[in-house]
Structures are given as structure tokens and as C-alpha cells.
Design brief:
Layout (H helix, E strand, L loop, with lengths): L7 E10 L2 E11 L4 E5 L6 H8 L7 E6 L2 E2 L2 E4 L2 E4 L2 H9 L1 E4 L11 H11 L5 H14 L15 H13 L5 E5 L7 H16 L3 E5 L3 H7 L2 E6 L2 E6 L1 H4 L6 H7 L4
Parallel strand pairs: 3-10, 3-11, 8-9, 9-10
Antiparallel strand pairs: 1-2, 1-4, 4-5, 6-7, 11-12
Helix pairs in contact: 3-4, 3-5, 4-5, 5-6
This protein binds adenosine-5'-diphosphate (ADP) and magnesium ion (MG).
Keywords: Amino-acid transport, ATP-binding, Cell membrane, Membrane, Nucleotide-binding, Transport
Organism: Glaciihabitans tibetensis
Subcellular location: Cell membrane
């Protein structure tokens, strides 16, 4: 695979729910080992965009490539065919996703939550999966919580476990959908710190966030979306400090 190609590429992506057009032609490139931050008002289509990349939602037209594979389609003999569910699941495994709500399995311990995917889906041997889970827990600063249950953790700790769980599948790219929005303000920092470390390690990340300071410090590329379209994008220093569009300026002033 040619590693100079972008990790994620969207070409003219359209997505509607019934008569409501939510993505109105999105062209976007997300580079390898970079952090792309998606910002924009509520309802502008940010979550839908992530869900389309992960093939949770199916697009109406356009194309999405992840690591040069066409999402939802397989190529045979130069022709493209719609993927079977089994192949879609395999493709989705290469894409980690962290949601606003923590989505941990409440009846499983922290380490069981992290081991579930590797053992159940990737068929990694138990001992190896457990060692990997502990390594990841250390990485997110929760080594001592391996045998705790989710309801014994703070929101910030749950979200760090959710990140470790996604990483356990060894994804090519990590998608974050407002990972700190549900947290009490004093718990936001610990989650952003883990994300900052992950970015420094070279993970390709796409982050929907309202944390403008994070986008400025950690983001390599910032994309401002409004009403299903990309209004402007560029380096954080441009988009966040010198936005050229009135909508972006209004959003950053907190008006939208
Ligand atoms: P954002 O994440 O930027 O707040 P969303 O992608 O969640 O925006 O939503 C964009 C628009 O699509 C909203 O109007 C929302 O109500 C609508 N929408 C999202 N998901 C669905 C769905 N499954 N069915 C119908 N409408 C949806
Ligand atoms: Mg959203």
C-alpha cells in the first residue's frame, strides 16, 4: 500500500435521512499520522460524517476511502461490488471509534471490556490479550483499575477505558465524537491528555470537538462544518485565529 496516500478521503459525499439532506457534498482528505479536528454547530453533520466513514451509516452518493480501500465496496477484476456484511465488519474493525457516551459493557470488568474485541473477534489468545489490555491500561493511566467494573469509575476514567478498548483492536485510524462533552469539567483534562499522547505517538485521529484549545494545540488540520458543508478548513492557526468566513467567526465567538 502506498503510504503517502491520505488515510481517509471523501469525494463528493452526500447523505440524506429521508428528505433531510445532512451531508451536501463533502470533499475531504485526512492525512496519515495527523489529527484532523472537525468543528461546527450542533446539527451540522459532524457525527453523521464520522458514522459514514465507519460505515455505520450508508452514504447516498460519493465515495469514501480508508487507507485506499473503498468503504463498503470490494474490488474484483477491476469492478466494484457492494460488500457483504462480513467484510463490512472486517473493514470497520480497522477503524476505532470513541463516542460521547462511554458505551462500556456494564457487566464486564475493565480488562474484560478491553479484551472482548481482540479475543472474540480477532481470536487473539487470552494471555496475549490480557497482557495487551494491561499495557493499554498503563498507557491511559488506569493500570490499577483492570478488575473494576464501569460503574466504579468516574466519567473520565470510563472514557479512558473506552479509548484503550478501541486501541486494543489496533486500528489504523481513531474517530472521536465529542469524547469530552458528557464529562464534568474537571474530568475533561485527563481524557484530552490521553488523546494528546496518542496523537504524539503518530496515531491518525479525526476528532469532533468543542474543545477549541485542544484543536489549536493538538490539531494539524481544522475543518469547520455548517449545514452539511465544509465552510472552511486549514491549519488551526488560520481557521481558529483568522477565520475568513462569517459563519466560522460567529461560531468561534460562541454565537452559533
Ligand atoms: P452534529 O453531530 O454536527 O450535531 P448530526 O450528524 O448528528 O450533527 O446530525 C445532522 C442532522 O441529521 C441533524 O438534523 C440530525 O437531526 C439529523 N440526523 C442524524 N441522524 C439521523 C437519523 N438516524 N435519522 C434522521 N435524522 C438524523
Ligand atoms: Mg454530533
Amino acid at each position: 500500500m502506498n503510504n503517502t496516500l491520505p488515510m481517509v478521503r471523501l469525494e463528493s459525499v452526500h447523505k440524506s435521512f429521508g428528505s433531510l439532506e445532512v451531508l451536501k457534498g463533502i470533499d475531504l482528505v485526512m492525512e496519515r499520522e495527523k489529527v484532523t479536528c472537525l468543528i461546527g454547530p450542533s446539527g451540522s453533520g459532524k457525527s453523521t460524517l464520522l458514522r459514514c466513514i465507519n460505515h455505520i451509516e450508508r452514504i447516498n452518493s460519493g465515495r469514501i476511502f480508508v487507507d485506499n480501500d473503498l468503504v463498503g465496496y470490494t474490488e474484483r477484476g477491476g469492478k466494484f461490488y457492494e460488500m457483504k456484511e462480513r467484510d463490512t465488519i472486517r473493514q470497520r474493525q480497522q477503524i476505532g471509534m470513541v463516542f460521547q457516551g462511554f458505551n462500556l459493557f456494564p457487566h464486564m470488568t475493565v480488562e474484560q471490556n478491553i479484551m472482548e474485541g481482540p479475543v472474540g473477534i480477532l481470536k487473539v489468545p487470552l494471555a496475549e490479550a490480557r497482557a495487551d489490555a494491561h499495557r493499554l491500561l498503563t498507557r491511559v493511566g488506569l493500570a490499577e483499575k483492570a478488575t473494576a467494573y464501569p460503574n466504579q469509575l468516574s466519567g473520565g476514567q470510563k472514557q479512558r477505558v473506552a479509548i484503550a478498548r478501541a486501541l486494543a483492536m489496533k486500528p489504523k485510524v481513531m474517530l472521536f465524537d465529542e469524547p469530552t462533552s458528557a464529562l464534568d469539567p474537571e474530568l475533561v483534562g485527563e481524557v484530552l491528555e490521553v488523546m494528546r499522547d496518542l496523537a504524539a505517538s503518530g496515531m491518525t485521529m479525526i476528532v469532533v470537538t468543542h474543545e477549541i484549545a485542544f484543536a489549536r494545540d493538538v490539531g494539524d488540520h481544522v475543518v469547520f462544518m455548517d449545514d452539511g458543508r465544509i465552510v472552511e478548513q486549514g491549519a488551526p492557526s488560520e481557521v481558529l485565529s483568522r477565520p475568513s468566513h462569517a459563519r466560522t467567526q460567529a461560531f468561534l465567538r460562541g454565537v452559533l
